[in-house]
Model the fold of this input.
Amino acid sequence: VQVVESGGGSVQAGGSLRLSCTETSGGTYDTMAWFRQAPGKEREGVAAFRNCDGITCDGPTAYADSVKGRFTVAQDNARNILYLQMDSLKPEDTAMYYCAATRSILGRSLLLNPTLYDYWGQGTQVTVST
Done:
C-alpha cells in the first residue's frame, strides 16, 4: 500500500492550493483524511472524508475548526484519490500536510484522530507567506 501526496507549494496569504492524495496500489478506502504538522507542534487533523454509501451516516466530511469555510475535502468516485482544496490560505496554515487512509468507516467524531489511520503518505509541504 502506498499513499502519495502532491500539490504542495508556496503561496501568498489569501491564495489557494489544491492537494491530491493517491493510493497507488489500486486499493479503495472508506475513510481518508488530511493531517498537518508544523515545526514544534503536534500532528493535527485538518479534514476527512468517509464513504457513506448504503449506511446511516451523519455526513461524509469533518473539518478542523481552524479551516472550516476555507478548505474543502472530496474523494473521487473510485475511492482512491482524496483532494483538499485550500482557499484563503493564512500563514498559520504553513505545515507539512499528510494524507492518511483506512478501510474502516470511522464515526464522525473520530475522523480527525490520527491514531485510527493505517496508511500514511510521506507528506507535502505547504508554505504561506505574508
